[in-house]
Each structure stands twice: as structure tokens, then as C-alpha cells.
Amino acid sequence: MTSTGMRYRYRAWDGSQTIMPLAPEQVLAALSDDLLSGNIEQALDRALHRGLTDPDGEQIAGLDQLRDALRAERRQLEQSLADNEQLQQLADALRSGGGTEGLDPQSSDLLEALAGHPDSARILAHLPADARTQAQAAIDQILRRGTLNREDGSLDDAPEFSGSLADILTHLGQLDELEQAIRRVRTVADIADIDPELVRSALGQQASNAIERLTASLQGFADSGFVRGPGGKQELSARALQHIGDDILTAVMARLASRQPGDRLLLHRRGIHDLTGTSRDYQFGDPLALDLSRTVLQAVRRGSGTPVRLDATDFAIFEREDSARAATVLAIDLSRSMGERGYLLAAKRLALALTTLIRTRFPRDILLLTGFSESARPLTPPELPRLAWDRFGFGTNIQDALRLGRSQLAAHRGMQRNLILLTDGEPTAHRDSDGRIHFNHPPTPATLASTYAEADRLRRDGITLAVCVLSAELQVVRFAEELTRRTSGDLIVTAPDNLATAIALHYGKRRKH
Question: Which end of the chain is more exposed for a tag (fewer CB within 10 A), N or C?
Fold first, then answer.
């Protein structure tokens, strides 16, 4: 039996191993919702105990399933002990006062106590490991003299019985050792201390394969760079967020592909929209739709001589419909109701999907993030995984969200400017002219008036407002309708599961206007 003090190391998959671990990208996809739910350490701990699901839908067992298998195996061994004929003979002999000659007093007392109890098999199975080892040694000492005769309790030779009881007790010892090894696991790194050979001996090859696959998958993920930062300060890297955003947007596109043709604007690749007839200087990354006459004219003016020699600085390209830049603020409600109703995960997925959409389809656009509860504050994409609803604030200050969004967009005049407000309720807080925040539930006329006044300022500044409501409550929808009416904006009422698809479709259509 291998010592539990040894540490086992796992190397990257090179094709020679019999166990195929999940790639780090596959682990990231399997854990994306848990990782976005707030605490990365808790997400990895859940994976450690509950296991992983591979891309084919097959479950890779975790420590919880290993414990369940261990308990089931122990129950089977208890039944085997209860049915073990040799143990029954031993108990009969000990009850009649024979068989303990030559044993030390402690071992003799232990065996006689077991023999005198009707449930001796179960007690033996649940003895502490050291006590069961002592009992096993005593039993082995008796069995080495021979096997007990059924009729008179005397000893004779019958070696066919000598291995059965010893094997059961040895197996119980392996289960004890494995259980202790599982209890010592506190982090993903600790799982490498579980000996796959011990798992194989105790629970079989399938369980050993599962723990090896889980270990290699989680360690590969830990070494991938998707998670960074020591100890309790772990966070998802920008590359991890980009991968998750790509997966979310791919799912969104798949849903849009099943819709009506008029809803498929987002499936167009950038650069295939119709030319507008106007041109501008080329910038790196633009589709090379050259306005040849203007390009040559600029080269001539530069004095390239004849024949005309073109330089990259001479290039002019035709404008396309999507080349007008846009700046958008996504304002996310972080009030208590968003957290209690479980809507915040959908909001995070939306933010990542929109970030990916802009990066891949509209790379010249700008996306800014804002969070609000009793007041509003700017957010950044790296904050999203740990973003939580505000447990210490009171109210939903939509006025402050609109105010901050308008302030953020003030630096992007000359671009198409949009503000997307995501909420599940009415405004229950506002900021007065002195900057003090007032909370009122239900909303007072003063709160509503302050919120509508801020919406009017958006309209005067030429900012388009879209209000996305994760609620079907009549008073909430009516408020959102009035807000969009004042700004000539758009109202989107949707469920959390459809949120990213609805907003991505809205964004694509707005970018065509």
C-alpha cells in the first residue's frame, strides 16, 4: 500500500496516457456560470466536489461521487462480514471460551467483546483503523494455527477460509485510508495527494480513472493562466473573460440564426455593408475598399512624381454603413432585487456578450459599463466576475444611472451615443440638487420627476435610450414606457434567459440606423 505522504505530479497530455483530461478552455466553458457568479474559489471548490461535464455531456466524477462510492463499498463489505462463515465460526468459538490462548489481554478482550455482540460484523467494520488493525492481527494469529472446526470448536487445517476474512478487513483499511485522504483535500492543488492506485484498490479502475481525469483537468486549468492572483485574490484573466464572451456570443448567434430573416443583421461580418459614396483616410484594420481617385490625388498632392508612387498614407477608403462609430453605456441594476431574483448572472453574461460583439463586429465602437443601486458608479470588465448586488445600499437610483451615463458619453460627442438601462424595478431613490440621496418606496412624485428630468436631458443631448426590463409587473412596465416615450427610445421587456440575445439584436439594429 502506498504511503499517503507521497505527492503525485501530473504532466501535460502527450498522447501516451490512458486518461484524456479536459482542455483548459473546456473546463472554463463548463465552469463559466459558476465563475461569473462571484467567488472564483467557491466555483473551483464546487468543481472539485461535484465534478465536471465534458463537451459530450459525460460527467467526470468529483469528490462527492467518490465519497458516495466509498460509502456504498463499505456497506457491501459490512454485509460480507455479516455473511462471512469464518467470522461466525470465530465468534462461536470465542463465546465458548476458546481460541484466545496466547493473545495479549487487550486483543483477547477486544475479540471476546466482538464475539459477545450480535452485531459484531457491523462493529468490526466501523472500528477505528488502529483498533481494527489490532483485531485483524489477533484474528490472523488464531487463523495461522488453523481454521475452527464447525462442530467442536477445535482447530484443524482448512486454508480455503483463511483469505476471505483477511481480504475484507484489508479492503476496509484501504477505504479508511482513502477517506482520510479525501478529508485532507482543501483546494484544487491538494487533490494531487490522492493516490490513484489507492483509489483503484479501494473502488476500482473506473473510479481511479475519474479522479485522475478530474485532477489533470483542474490542474491544467490552474496552470493555463485563465485564473490569476494568489490566495483569496484570484480573478479571471482578460483572456478568460474573452473566451467566455466568445462562447456566449456564439450561443446568441445560434439563437438569432433560427429567427426571421429580418432579425439576422448581427450575422453579417463587418465590412460587407453597402458603400455610402463618401470616403475617408484609411486606418489600420479597415476593410481595403479603396477610393482610387482620391488615393491617387493624395499621392500627387504629396509630390510623388511620375509615375505616381503610392504610400500607405495616401490611401482613402469608401465609408460603409457601419463605419460611423458608436459609444454605448450599459447601466446594470445592482439593487437587492436583482440579486435575490438571480438576475445578476444574466446581466454579467449580457455585458460579456456585448463586449465580444463590439470587439468582433464593430471594433471601432466603445462600450462603457455602469452599475447602480442607491447611487451609480463606473465599472470595468475585469470587475464583472466578482460583481455582486449591493447588500448595504437601499433603493434603485435610475436617475443617477442616467446622469452618470450622460456624463460618460459627453466625452464622445460626434459619435452615435446610446445608453442601455437594465433594471427589474421602478426608481426608489433619487439625488437632490445638493447631492443628497433620498430613498422612498413606493416611488414618490419627487423621485419620478427627478428621473424623468434626467431622461429629458438625455434627449436634448442626442443620446438614444433603451430600457430593458426584467419584469412583467404592470407598474414597472408603465414606468419604462413613460421613460422611453420621453426620450423616443426603445423598450425591451424580456426574461433573463433571453437577455443577451434581445440586447445583441437591438444593438445590431440600432447600428444600422
Answer: C
Asked if 207 and 340 sit in the same domain, the reply is no
pLDDT digits (tens, 9 = 90+) for 217-253: 998 998 888 988 765 577 888 999 999 999 999 999 8
Is the same domain home to 308 and 371?
A: no
Tracing cell 454485509 back to the chain, one arrives at 79
* Closest to 471 in 3D by CA, of 405, 404, 396: 396
Domain count, the chain: 4
What would the pLDDT profile of 112-169 be if each residue is shown by its tens digit?
666 555 555 556 666 676 766 766 676 666 555 544 444 444 434 433 333 466 677 7
Query: What is the Cβ-side half-sphere exposure of residue 475, based on CA atoms within 13 angstroms?
Result: 8
Residues 288 and 331 in one domain: no
Asked if residue 2 is part of any domain, the answer here is no
74 plus 49 within the same structural domain: no
Task: Specify the pTM.
Answer: 0.71
Residues in the chain: 513
Beta strands in 129-215 (DSSP E): 147-148, 155-156
297: which 3 cell numbers?
490625388
Closest by CA position to 216, among listed 54, 29, 70, 36:
54
